[in-house]
Amino acid sequence: MTRCLAGLLLGAWLLAWGPLSALAGTDDNAPPAILLLTSYHQGDPWNDNLVRGFLSAIPPDKVRVSIESLDSRRLPGEDFLPQFLALLARKYAAVPIRLLVAADDAALDFWLAHGTALFPDRPVVFCGINDFTPSRLGGRTDVTGVCEAPDVLGTLEMALALLPRVRTILALGTDTDAAGRGNLARFRRAMLALGRRARAVELLNATPTQAKQALAALPRDAIMLRLGGLRSETGEILPREGDMPLLAAGSPVPIFVLWDFDLHDGALGGRVVSAASQGTAAAGLAMRVLGGQDPASIPVTDAANRTIVDYRVLRRFGLSVTVLPPGTTILNEPASAYERNKPLIWSIGVALTVLVPTTLLLLLTLAGRQSAEKRLRESEARYRELVESAHTLILRFDPKGKLIFVNEYSELLLGYSEEELARVLATPPPSGPADLAGLLARVMMAPQSLEEQVAEREIQAKDGRRVIVRWDKRMLRDAAGHCTGWLAVGTDITARRQAEDALAARMLAEEELLGLGRELLAGGPGSLERALRRLLTAFAADRVALLQNVLDPKLGLCGRIMAEATAQGIVPHDPDSDAPHMPYSLDAFHWADTLEAGETIAGLVKDFPECLQELFRSFGLQAIMAAPVNVGGTWNGFLAVGDTRGPRIFTRQEQTQLGTAASILSAHLSRPDRC
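Given the sequence above, the corresponding structure tokens read:
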């Protein structure tokens, strides 16, 4: 009812004010206007800092910015929506709005639902959006923006580096809204990535009293991570600026945070999201769109997070700034000895400059050329020895990009000479992610690393090994500031990426096995095929099939395809064919023996007997894995997973997971209601 009323009111206002809007569009001298819609109210720290960052990057003499607020925290629901729509229609009927900007999720949802009716054909730029996916845009291509990505894993890694004895992490958050649930999910993924380094304790939707009691009960080897705010005794969310001092005042353990507005009030710090950075990044995108760039050509990105700590809280817990990671911003740090004594130090310097110039000049004259050249040669030798023995890849390029130096470690690691390595580096990397598992690992455990992918490259060593190198590139300049070349320093991160890939593949397979069970329990037409499609993702396979044992008059015991799932572009089998798909005869007799014994089979197609090679290649397979399926305790067939893209060795873990999937199918097929 509310949506209908809103539509009627909006239509009436558009009819009434349409002529004025058309008239405004004819004013070529009027500067282009941006309408910034914020989700929260003026006075909210996040909201105010975001607006401040946005306005700081917009030239006021070239663009006019108007700001409106949904006030969604204090006015939830849609009761006031008709009046708000009518207000916008009337207020901006004569304003040449060229671009709509949404600050946070509620504002973006509003523009996606009502922006086209209010301001037709206006593109949208957003910022501060949680857990963004392209499907949220409903097919629109004129939308781009900046996402808010709290770095939970990075903050916890920083906390454990500062406090290596910590074993308990208390997460204070909420699960009553989408943002709270998203942050809670990030925390759980981060704890999974940390493994046994610490245990998690969750305190959700807590009141100030409950939070104080939980903090007081924590052991001394604990920290707190603030994922969300506190609730009043009646359930309302407390103001953001009010609960952090309350928490920090009586906390016996350090408190880590994810947003910059939580600093200054007793939090130790964290890898924080900056509201001002979100606004500034959105303003940059807005100016590009106003300049004529198509929003569809501008990818949605995450604004970079910063590591920030409060010096006063560091000292309170007896921590030193020397253990902080490079690039950390330190708040409230006291002035150095130089700053405190700057007048005295400068006075002494001036006096020395006046009193001893003759002495310094004499020393410089006595420094003979031969002695200087000897020291230079020794320095160069030490430098070359350091560079050659360093366990990092060090490459130097001239201003035109030609490789002119490679250290010995680079040649040993990759197996290429300097000339060969120049050709390898000149080859452009393949487009897209190296593999799904590696991309998924970074999405699940370290999403902030996605923005740094341009600094990483996969290189195939001369012996065929896959080596992943993270590069740090620096321009070299002469005294006049001109470019004299480039220095690239690389770190071999292959082992870390492989560990992330393996963890991601295992987590993905386990999630899809749960989905297999859910599809079977749901039942209904096509439930078996939908369940098998889960296994395509779990094993990154091209074909998954369930074969049932049948007795053929000519061939004897055979396996016939009962259900099948194939990847996109793979042609499924002919369901109308009566021919058995897997005869257990001749060289295939050992399949029946092995599967009936409850064992899993896996291997390359080229390693199986000739008759099986011909059969499997008719389905385009190059590798296959199979596990037995039992019905009522009797062997009834098998579940098979195949790969058509190339030779593939299925791991013991994958074979165990396929056995689990086959057991789930066995239980499903043995249910009495299927008899």
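The first helix runs from residue 2 to 25. Try to locate this feature in the token string yourself.
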